[in-house]
Every structure is written in structure tokens, then in C-alpha cells.
Specification:
Residues 3-159 form the 6-phosphogluconate dehydrogenase NADP-binding domain. The protein is an alpha/beta fold. Helices cover 54% and strands 13% of the residues. The chain has 14 helices and nine strands. The chain has helices at 12-20, 35-40, 49-55, 66-74, 79-82, 96-108, 122-127, 138-148, 163-191, 196-205, 211-222, 231-248, 253-267, 279-282, and strands spanning 3-6, 25-28, 44-45, 58-61, 87-90, 112-115, 118-119, 130-135, 152-159.
Length: 283
């Protein structure tokens, strides 16, 4: 079976590379910057999104947001025509309403639609250790499980379309809040005159330590702002989370603070830097 992959950004590129190790893969991206890397791994470059769909049975999509997806579809009149008999897996972070709309278009065109946003950043993507949050027809999901194994350490069925995204919003609320708290913690230690490397050792040894916190602490200590998940991605997440919370009328005061922080970091010109670069807002 040939797999298609649409979107070769920070997350999409390592995911596509992992799939290339087990399956024939045809890729397309709005930017051709990663094409040579994918070709070296054995991937075929698709001329257009619809050409990828035409040649594949199962297509993964990992674009930035709903606007990017819609732009791709609007710019390729044959995309939905080509989806007949194919399965599209959307891993992009989008609003639930848009996911339902997209699913409806795919189903009307004779295709199958599965939602699978993922938890994890570039390093877990490289290691094939992402957590997939699956939603949609459970029979279809059971059929595609062998093809998502190279990119996930766990793939959990969450319910009908929309459920995967709802799980992603809740996970990211925790993630974004922890990231902001870690940045504040490191800055307080710095401002009090503590040696940051020593304080980093304290955090890495305490019960709150995780694989994630250890990576982000090292980034702060090294002044390494290369993105594993970018500030612009986090800002997009905070907006999605806030909208979801408003819809069900629950209070999320932490995410409102984080939304403002990540907005300010984008305004400061750090939108392409790693999410922990909000540390620079406090220094």
C-alpha cells in the first residue's frame, strides 16, 4: 500500500521519514525545502495534493491549521474528486466544527475521514513516539492501525469525529501551562541570583521532572531556541483551547494568561522559535 503525506513542517517531516522506513510514501508540501531529505529516504515527490491522493490509498495530512488546509483544497480543484475510495487522516490542529465540515466533504466525495491529532513535539516525532488521539469510524481505525504504528507509541480511540481534537485541546492546556510555569520558575531562580545550571539539576531530580521538562531546561541553559514546537504553534493552540472552553462554558484562567504570553512572544518576533522561548519575555 502506498501512503501519502501532505505537509512537511517541523512535525510532518520526521513523521513522513518514519513512514518511509516501512512503506512506499508519496509526499507534498507547500514548501519544497524538505524534498531532498525525503527523496533520500525513498519518498516520491507529488506534483500536487490531488496527485498524491490519486496515487495513494491512505493519506496523512499535517498542515499548520484549518486555513492552511482550506487553502490547499481551494487551490487544487481535483483534491476532493481524487478522494473517492481513499482514507484521509487529518493530524492538524483545527477547530472541531472545521473537522466535521471536512469529514462531510470527504464522505460526500466517497472517501473516509479519520481524525488523529498527536501529542508530542519534534523529538518524539523523530523517535516515532507520538501519542495519537483517534476519532471516527472504529472499523476504519482498526484497518489503518498498522500504518500509524511507525509514528506513534500509543494511539487511543477517543470517540466520534471531534473527540480526538477535544482530547488534544485538554492535553495542550496542560502542556502550555507547564511550559509557562517552567519558564517563570527558571526566571525567578535567575533573578534571585541562583546558578541556573544547579537549579536545573534540582528540577531534573525533583518529583515534577519529566522527559519534556528536562529537554526544555536544557534549552534554556544553552540558549537554544531552535523549535521542537514553535511559539506560533502554541499561540494557535491557546486560541483553539479558549474557543473550546467558551463553547462548553468552563473557566480556563491559566490558558488566558498563556494566550497573552504567546501572543506577546509572537509580537516580539519569536514566533518561529521553540515554545520555551517565552522565557525571554521574563528576563
Amino acid at each position: 500500500m502506498s501512503l501519502g503525506f501532505l505537509g512537511l513542517g517541523i512535525m510532518g517531516t520526521p513523521m513522513a521519514l518514519n513512514l518511509c522506513r516501512k512503506f512506499p510514501v508519496i509526499v507534498w508540501s507547500r514548501s519544497d525545502s524538505q524534498y531532498n531529505l525525503l527523496k533520500e529516504a525513498g519518498a516520491i515527490i507529488g506534483e500536487t495534493p490531488s496527485r498524491v491522493v490519486e496515487q495513494c490509498d491512505l493519506i496523512f495530512m499535517m498542515l499548520f491549521d484549518s486555513a492552511a488546509i482550506q487553502s490547499m483544497i481551494d487551490g487544487d480543484d481535483d483534491f476532493l474528486k481524487a478522494i473517492y475510495g481513499k482514507t484521509l487522516i487529518n493530524m492538524s490542529s483545527v477547530p472541531v466544527d472545521y473537522s466535521h465540515e471536512l469529514a462531510e466533504h470527504v464522505h460526500k466525495a466517497g472517501g473516509k475521514f479519520i481524525e488523529m491529532p498527536v501529542s508530542g513535539s519534534r523529538l518524539p516525532a523523530e523517535q516515532g513516539q507520538l501519542v495519537g488521539m483517534l476519532a471516527g469510524d472504529r472499523t476504519v481505525i482498526d484497518q489503518i492501525r498498522p500504518f500509524i504504528e511507525p509514528i506513534t507509541s500509543a494511539a487511543v480511540y477517543c470517540g466520534p469525529i471531534g473527540s480526538g481534537l477535544k482530547a488534544k485541546y485538554a492535553v495542550n492546556l496542560f502542556l502550555v501551562s507547564v511550559t509557562a510555569g517552567l519558564a517563570e520558575s527558571m526566571n525567578l531562580a535567575r533573578a534571585q541570583g541562583l546558578d541556573l545550571a544547579s537549579f536545573g539539576e534540582v528540577l531534573n531530580a525533583c518529583p515534577l521532572a519529566s522527559a519534556y521538562s528536562k529537554v526544555k531546561i536544557a534549552k534554556i541553559l544553552n540558549g537554544d531556541w531552535s523549535p521542537q514546537a514553535a511559539i506560533k504553534d502554541c499561540y494557535n493552540s491557546t486560541q483553539l483551547i479558549q474557543s473550546a472552553a467558551q463553547e462548553v462554558q468552563v473557566q480556563t484562567p491559566l490558558i488566558e494568561i498563556c494566550r497573552c504570553l504567546y501572543r506577546d512572544a509572537c509580537i516580539s518576533g519569536w514566533d518561529e522559535e521553540d515554545m520555551i522561548a517565552i522565557y525571554k519575555l521574563f528576563t
